[in-house]
């Protein structure tokens, strides 16, 4: 891809992210994004169908980074490995402003759903669902909902516990559930 195109696209995404930290998506206009990105409206429409498409692309970008946080030595670890949990929370800390904005405004249901899909995929990849399928599917749904709920709580409450403590607590909870049902 042409470097100028990449720069324009990145400027648009950066401008959008700056604006989403300030106000809800409904109150953001394409003109505001264009002005902040120092591009014209037509340039935005070359890359994105509308502000919702732009939001989705930004979400995808951060969620891809979150997925990569689980990758160690070019292998995807089970989402329930302790080192994977540490990297997830470290990623959340580094990108705290973004996740805080996404989880505390009207966009949170869209974002939460996509985050749950990623975690569910990670858990399902690490489990054998051939035996007691219903029980394991319910367990996975429970773990994912609980895990995303804790992530959301941690961010919403301004990271009340440091990463090592929150990871240790989650690890103990996951292990107690896994020993009893997975």
TrEMBL record:
Chain ranges of the HTH tetR-type domain: 6-66
Keywords: DNA-binding
InterPro entries (UniProt xref): Homeodomain-like_sf, HTH-type_Tx_Regulator, HTH_TetR, TetR_C_Firmicutes
DNA-binding region: 29-48
Span of the signal peptide: none
Gene Ontology MF terms in the entry: DNA binding
Alphabetical list of Gene3D superfamilies matching this protein: Tetracycline Repressor, domain 2 (1.10.357.10)
One Pfam family here: TetR_C_8
Stated name of the protein: TetR family transcriptional regulator
